[in-house]
């Protein structure tokens, strides 16, 4: 497997917690982050649902604040 180097900045508390979790799992911080990214990328349908929900604001509908539950369920079920 070929890896690409990248640089990411975290807030100090985020960095501390990430390192702690990696240590608890007995893996490096880099491996822990790779696994998190891998899992995130596997959840593509969930991300698509999220972007459909976010896009409701541009739907042109004027009643989204009143019917947000209905429109949210509709956007998720339309797949």
CA gyration radius, whole angstroms: 19 Å
Distance between the termini: 34 Å
The structural domain count equals 2
Which shape, going by the Cα principal axes?
Answer: elongated
Taken as a percent bin, the fraction of beta residues is under 5%
Instruction: Report mean pLDDT, rounded to a whole number.
Output: 80
Main beta sheet: none
Secondary-structure map:
Layout: H1 12-25, H2 29-42, H3 44-55, H4 68-77
Please describe what this structure looks like.
The protein is mainly α and 79 residues long. It has two domains: 8-42, no CATH class; 44-79. It has helices at residues 12-25, 29-42, 44-55, 68-77. α1 (12-25) packs across α2 (29-42) and α3 (44-55) packs across α4. The protein is elongated.
Any key phrases for this structure?
79 residues, mainly alpha, 2 domains, 63% helix, 0% strand, elongated
Brief characterization of the structure:
With 79 residues, this protein is mainly α. The chain has helices at 12-25, 29-42, 44-55, 68-77.
